[in-house]
Amino acid sequence: MAAMDTKEQHQLSLKVMRLTKPTFASSTPLSCESVDLPGKALDKLRENDAAAVPGLPNVAMGELLTLPQTFGSIFLGETFSSFINVRNDSAEDANEVVVKTEIQTGSQRVTLSRAEAGTIATLKPDCSISDTVHHEVKELGIHILVCSVHYTPPNVNAERKFFRKFFKFQVFKPLDVKTKAYNVQENVFLEAQLQNITEGPIHMHKVTLQPSPLFDMVDLNHLKGIHPTSDSGEKTTFGSSTYLNSQDTRQYLFKLTPKVAGGDAATRSATTIGRLDIVWKTNMGELGRLQTSDLPRKPPVPTDLEVRVQSAPKEVFCGTPFVLTCVVTNLSKRPLRLRLREDPVKAQGIFLDGVSGREIGPAIAPHQSLTFPLQLVGVRTGLHPIKGILLMDKTSNSEHELQSLPFVFVHRRAKSED
After folding, report:
1. Could you tell me which residues come within 8 angstroms of residue 416 by beta carbon, excluding any fewer than 6 positions away?
2. Secondary structure letter of residue 160 according to DSSP
3. Cβ within 8 Å of residue 379, ≥6 positions away
4. Are 177 and 292 in contact (CB under 8 A)?
5. Close Cβ partners of 371 (under 8 Å, ≥ 6 residues apart)
6. pLDDT digits (tens, 9 = 90+) for 273-319
7. Main-chain phi, psi angles of 271, to 5 degrees
């Protein structure tokens, strides 16, 4: 680790080494004819290569595990570990030795030294003391490891000595996380897009959503099946692949349902839906964990009523009327008398069957529901959305277009005509 240090000489020396997993190192044998310009220089280099195979000069052993030669990269969510060693290089004792280790970030200063380390009464010549410190990295940007040493020389009336070293390192972001929330009636669907922006592959150990207290969460990334691809006995939507290569992207989907059936006012107006909890491992098994802040969502625009589809037919044929069973809920504080109307400009292949402008039933009291049949007919084959269906309040003359109606596939003709 590169350090910033003072020039004053001390009888104690301080060394710091980051503790990390070994890395893979591979060797590619290089050879040439003896009459070529390099001569035997390449042969001598190959003899000193740890991956060389005795008796087979042109064959490499393969990838070997080697200790890190550089500080390496540190990513947000990982645990930074470091070995601190203080040695007495002089011929005299050092008294009352205190070693203090801190991490300084852009917003805080955290002490890493263990409290039980305390003060070393006497450090003999050629002896050393050491400590291992750990810190969970929770901030991006530049971090500074500050190591300070206090001691007293053995001379009578000697002044207490002090020196310290600074080790600067950069913390990078391992994943680029993008989220988007969709309101579907009282439910919320969260789409999370995760991109690996490190230089190597990572193993996606766990990606979950911790919902807010107002919602229950359903993980749509796991499917129950007879061929499980995870330890939980469930088949994932990603198959057996758990690795995410560099610059690759993976999308996750979660469904949130209100804990109160139908959703209360607090649930409908909630602007946060929870946090993503992401756990990954590097190719050498180092664990990292990342938790997002509260994820926002745009609450649905308050309306006087809410409509949901209770049932819909599995098959629809061109020219044959069909019925959707719908439930309308009065969210206002006054009774609603509703009429069903169609906007033919917005309709696409599926139209209202019957008279436009008819009442759907009796007045609906506040916070009450009414079930009514929505009679439709498909006039063009193919997959079409149901659009242009409006409910009009007779009292206020306000109109509400039915949203979240399903897509319907219209067949060419009925089975009886085959």
Report:
1. none
2. P
3. 318, 319, 349, 350, 351
4. yes
5. 310, 325, 326, 327
6. 999 999 998 878 888 899 999 999 988 877 788 888 888 887 889 98
7. -105, -10
